[in-house]
Amino acid sequence: MKLGFITAICDGMTFEEVVDFAAENGLECLEVACWPQGGARRRYAGVSHIDAANLTVEKAAYIKEYCKGKGVEISSLAYYPNTMDPDLKKRAAYIEHLYKLIDASVILEVNMITTFVGRDPKKNVEENLELVREVWPPIVTYAEEKGVKIGIENCPMLFTSDEWPGGQNLMTTPANWRKIFEIIDSPNFGINYDPSHFVWQQIDYIKPLYEFRDKIFHVHYKDIKVYQDKLADVGVMAAPLEYMSPKLPGLGDVNWGNYVSALTDIGYQGYTCIEVEDKAFEASLEDAKKAVILSARYLRNYVI
Fold first, then answer.
1. Residue 38, pLDDT above cutoff 90
2. Which long-range contacts (CB under 8 A, 24 or more apart) does 33-40 make?
3. pLDDT of 162
4. pLDDT at 304
5. pLDDT for 94-115, tens place per residue?
């Protein structure tokens, strides 16, 4: 396994600065944020370290050479919109950029993108499964033709008032994974696995690794701390941020020894990327960089 981080927390840094930072700290890969220029400005979104929409062969050659010179690989191109947004104009724009990421991934010889499957928050699971049938087959077919894998993260995107009641991503549970993989039965369509999202949903985050071992394309390292006193006060029907908070690996409730042990059990040898969303490290860019360094130092107990 190769250890790196998702670059979304490095807003304000150039691509070269991010690669240099990774190399200087012994990190081997980057999940590169690739939002469109002037894109979403929610927390941890809207950052672009590679302009996928305007990537040329010459620019791609420069990026590949720069990474090679620093010993840092690109694990995937990352863009996390709601591709099943009920606003059809927004949905079309999100999907259009996703196609550009697939093309850029080919030019860069990365051959992987990481994203969400999306969800209409006002519709139930069955209705959203019908949206999956409508929206995703053409995208996956295009990815297959290009030889690109799509890793879907299991984040519910159910944190702010505009994301209620259903959240903005349907691929949030093993039960939903099975249903969606029946609809999208493709070797190019799989999972970007983040254990933290299962913790606050009270889902076993170890067992699914074994069942979906052949579908795990990419891995996130992010922790979650559930505040039991707050949970006891507001209950599981409350907005998740009322009783939990994202933390750096080792500062929350994920048992990282068990998690990485299971990854080795299933023979996972792909990319593993730290994702920083810890509010204690948001005061400055230097704090965000410190968060990556501290996370990597902790995870080196398990990932060498």
1. no
2. 33/6, 33/7, 33/8, 33/78, 33/79, 34/77, 34/78, 34/79, 34/101, 34/104, 35/79, 35/97, 36/93, 36/97, 39/97, 40/81
3. 76
4. 83
5. 999 999 999 999 999 999 999 9
**What's the rounded Cα separation, in Å, for the pair 125 and 110?**
32
- DSSP for 64-99 reads HHHHHHHT-EEEEEE----TT-SSHHHHHHHHHHHH
> Would you say 118 and 87 are in contact if contact means Cβ atoms under 8 Å apart?
no
Residues 6+ apart with CB under 8 A from 208: 174, 177, 193, 198
Answer whether the bond into residue 165 is a cis peptide, omega within 30°: yes
Contact between residue 194 and residue 222 where contact means Cβ atoms under 8 Å apart = yes
> What pLDDT shows up at residue 116?
98
Give the tokens for residue 7.
């670059």
Q: pTM value?
A: 0.96
CATH class of 2-299: alpha beta
Residue 27, classed as helix, strand or coil, is: coil
3-state secondary structure labels for all residues of 37-69: CCCCCCCCCCCECCCHHHCCHHHHHHHHHHHHH
Q: What confidence score (pLDDT) does residue 43 get?
A: 65
CA distance to 10, 117, 276, per residue, from 29 (Å): 14, 24, 15
Strands (E), 136-294: 149-153, 189-193, 216-221, 223-226, 244-247, 271-274
pLDDT-derived band at 180, boundaries 50, 70, 90? very high
pLDDT at 44 over 80: no
Q: What rounded mean pLDDT belongs to the chain?
A: 96
What are the helix and strand counts (H, E) for the chain? 10, 10
